[in-house]
């Protein structure tokens, strides 16, 4: 994805305010061997790009005054209640250096899983993104999570996910195999079945003595 930016030399709070009034968003590019560069981006183009999932998890072609370089979106700030992007941070990437980045999880085949198809269960997504490490050229836009075999009372863990070639998961918090999704019967259905059980199976009447 291509992003157009312009180098800016007018810095400070007042300068940033003037940029936003002019329909621009101030930002910065850092990382690698080059010095950080302060930039300006078209606000409307950036605002709409931020709505796209791939913009957050893809290598971007950032063109600054006609010169392009590979970057990742690392951070951005938005106004508390206005539809206004206040600032954006981009990090340069080296094709030979691994990067750490969060990518979204795409859950598939929930409708054909035993949990849903046979038991009308509910599948809960415990996490919706995954922290990974890989070379820039191996960065996936997302990681698929196949729920086809998930049944009631069971969980899907990180070890059950097939990661793309060259991609490894970055584990935090000391948990080696975190839970990704779980399947359970809705609480209301459990209560209804429990209430219906006595009526469905009345006690047998004692046999008459002859």
Write the layout of secondary structure elements.
Elements: E1 2-7, H1 13-21, E2 24-30, E3 37-42, H2 43-49, H3 53-56, E4 60-64, E5 67-78, E6 85-92, E7 99-108, H4 114-117, E8 122-125, E9 129-134, E10 143-146, E11 155-157, E12 168-169, E13 179-184, H5 187-200
Parallel strand pairs: 1-4, 2-6, 7-10
Antiparallel strand pairs: 1-3, 2-3, 4-5, 5-6, 7-9, 8-13, 9-12, 11-13
Task: Explain what you see.
The protein is α+β, with helices and mostly antiparallel strands. The protein folds into two domains: 2-92, Ribosomal Protein L25, Chain P (Beta Barrel); 99-193, Ribosomal protein L25, C-terminal domain (RNA Polymerase Alpha Subunit, Chain A, domain 2). The protein is built from five helices and 13 strands. The chain has helices at residues 13-21, 43-49, 53-56, 114-117, 187-200; strands spanning 2-7, 24-30, 37-42, 60-64, 67-78, 85-92, 99-108, 122-125, 129-134, 143-146, 155-157, 168-169, 179-184. The protein has a six-stranded mixed beta barrel with strand order 1-3-2-6-5-4. It has a four-stranded mixed beta sheet with strand order 10-7-9-12, with no helix packed on it. A hairpin with a 6-residue loop joins strand 2 and strand 3. The longest helix is centred in the C-terminal third of the chain and has 14 residues, at 187-200. It is elongated, with a radius of gyration of 26 Å. The model has no long low-confidence stretch (mean pLDDT 88).
N-to-C terminal Cα separation, in Å?
Answer: 90 Å
CATH superfamily of the largest domain: Ribosomal protein L25, C-terminal domain
CATH topology of the largest domain: RNA Polymerase Alpha Subunit, Chain A, domain 2
Q: What is the H-and-E element order?
A: EHEEHHEEEEHEEEEEEH
Structural class label:
alpha+beta
Instruction: Give the class-level CATH name of the largest domain.
Output: Mainly Beta
Overall number of strands: 13
Largest sheet at a glance?
6 strands, mixed, barrel
Shape: elongated
Uncertain parts: none
Report the mean per-residue pLDDT as an integer: 88
Beta-strand content bin: 35-45%
Quickly count the domains. 2
CATH architecture of the largest domain: Beta Complex
Counted by DSSP, the helix tally is: 5
Strand order of the largest sheet: 1-3-2-6-5-4
Radius of gyration from the alpha-carbon trace, in angstroms: 26 Å
The helix content is 10-25%
